[in-house]
TrEMBL record:
Skewed-composition ranges (Low complexity): 1-21, 474-486
GO molecular function, one term: transferase activity
Name of the molecule in the record: PLP-dependent transferase
Keyword annotations from UniProtKB, A to Z: Pyridoxal phosphate, Transferase
């Protein structure tokens, strides 16, 4: 790591730094009560100034508060703030990260058309792509995000979107966003990047050619595991008018909206340059059709919770990232761990990519493969490890202040078939970790104890594949670093979990 995320430069930057943006952008106290914190506007609907004002709002001819399914003033602050962090032309907040992905794709892609997506992504997104998209008559090709020829080969005349996670969940696969963007752009296809794991603190996809960025704000943005939310950001770079016949919803009169042509009515001053009102053809359609019709709205309370989280995002990402790398180094030295999928490690095949694209680190979500002998049951081994952990909560989530653990093959990615799981590099002993904000010495002590119940330090499994990742002579495996009160970490989740003989 060469720099600290969110660090404050000596002189004031030309654009606000992350730390300032996180705490200020999008909100100016202005109500008679003048609250310094963003208020939770808990109102289902908003009173129109006049009949004419109401008609104009419904006709998309003016901006303003209408009905909370379409947006709230609390949500509007969140949208401005995330947009500023990502450097887009505007944003749309929705009820979950899943909704952010779904609304983005369904705004771009219709029945009979096609999506190309990474095969190393969050299992819920794979479910959406391989099951629900099929119901909608949308075909999907999943490709290895690192195989650029596969992206090229998968594109068809009817392809309308490409989707990749910047840092893939759960294997921390690092996509070369610029290279993928160049390929899909050559075919007139926009690139959507899910930036949930890295957050804009560590990676800004628009600087690498992405056209749309989606987030599960449930994770690091909220940061405390309290509220589900999602955000879509438009980079304003995709030109729907370059091949207008491919995008009739945007480029031809839309009868539903009194024959408005979205690319004319909401045109940007120039590619990537925001309008005063934060609108764009894509964002207006996503809000007034996708969210309006399907209804995945964000509650004002959840928007407030995510805003609270964002105020400390760069501080937290710094700690998360540093701790995760320290934990990864500890894990790669333990004989119970066959592989550590953390590209920040020098031994990882994608380490050079990590240094190039993620100079501040790759965040704190990564996986390990537990060592498993040929005569052992991988599910039992995984269970013995997970149930021996005390500090790590067994939770289907990432990006919490608390450290979390999950068994992707039977939990978050359990709907994938065996072939899809293999392509996603998820084995039956793959364990995903999300490193929290606790003292890292407590975390390594907890992990060390649980790993010792899988395989005590010094003992190797018969037929074990160590994948060449064990580095001899590093920290004594399973042992807390010097000076750490290891006894402060009690018992284990499964009190009956036996230490193997
Ligand atoms: C990378 C990624 N994208 C999207 C989602 C979906 O987000 P949510 O759970 O907020 O709907 C998740 C959830 O784990 C995720 O990890």
């Amino acid at each position: 790591m060469t720099a600290s995320p969110g660090s404050v430069p000596a002189s004031a930057p030309a654009t606000p730094s992350f730390a300032t943006t996180e705490t200020h952008t999008g909100y100016v106290p202005g109500t008679p009560q003048n609250p310094v914190a963003v208020p939770i506007y808990q109102s289902s609907a908003y009173e129109f100034e006049s009949f004419e004002a109401a008609r104009n709002l419904f006709a998309l001819k003016s901006s303003g508060n209408l009905y909370s399914r379409n947006g709230t003033p609390t949500q509007a602050v969140l949208e401005k703030r995330v947009n500023a962090l990502e450097g887009g032309v505007g944003a749309l907040a929705v009820g979950s990260g899943q909704a952010a992905v779904a609304v983005t794709l369904l705004t771009l892609v219709h029945t009979g058309q096609h999506i190309v997506a990474s095969n190393k992504i969050y299992g819920g997104t794979t479910d959406l792509l391989t099951d629900t998209c099929k119901d909608f008559g949308i075909d999907v090709t999943l490709v290895d995000p690192l195989d650029l020829d596969a992206w090229e080969a998968a594109i068809r005349p009817e392809t309308r979107a490409a989707l990749v996670e910047g840092v893939g969940n759960p294997i921390a696969t690092l996509a070369d966003v610029r290279a993928i963007a160049d390929i899909v752009h050559a075919h007139g296809v926009p690139l959507v990047v899910d930036n949930t794991v890295a957050t804009p603190i560590l990676f800004r996809p628009f600087e690498h050619g992405a056209d749309f960025v989606v987030h599960s704000a449930t994770k690091f943005m909220g940061g405390h595991g309290t509220s589900v939310a999602g955000v879509i950001v438009d980079g304003g770079t995709f030109d729907f008018t370059a091949e207008p016949e491919k995008w009739p919803t945007f480029t031809t009169p839309y009868a539903r909206y009194a024959d408005l042509v979205f690319t004319e009515e909401f045109a940007l001053p120039a590619p990537g340059v925001p309008r005063e009102d934060g609108k764009s053809p894509f964002l207006v359609l996503a809000r007034s059709k996708g969210v309006h019709d399907l209804g995945p709205s964000l509650s004002p309370f959840n928007a407030f919770q995510i805003l609270q989280g964002i105020e400390t995002l760069s501080l937290r990402m710094d700690r998360h990232t540093r701790s995760a790398l320290e934990v990864a180094r500890f894990l790669e030295a333990h004989p119970a761990v066959a592989k550590v999928h953390h590209p920040g490690l020098e031994s990882h095949p994608d380490h050079a990519t990590a240094e190039r694209l993620y100079p501040q680190g790759i965040g704190s979500v990564f996986s390990i493969d537990l060592a498993c002998g040929e005569d052992e049951d991988p599910i039992e081994v995984s269970g013995r490890f997970i149930d021996s952990l005390t500090l790590f909560a067994l939770v289907a989530n990432i990006g919490d202040a608390r450290s979390l653990v999950v068994h992707p093959a039977t939990m978050t990615h359990s709907r994938l078939n065996a072939e899809q799981r293999a392509e996603a590099q998820i084995t039956l002993t793959t364990i995903r970790l999300s490193i929290g904000l606790e003292d890292v010495r407590d975390l390594t002590a907890d992990l060390g104890k649980a790993l010792d119940r899988v395989r005590p330090a010094g003992q190797h499994a018969a037929g074990q594949n160590t994948a060449g990742q064990h580095i001899a002579g590093q920290a004594t495996a399973g042992q807390a670093p010097a000076g750490h009160p290891a006894e402060a970490v009690p018992g284990g989740r499964g009190a009956s979990a036996a230490v193997p003989a």
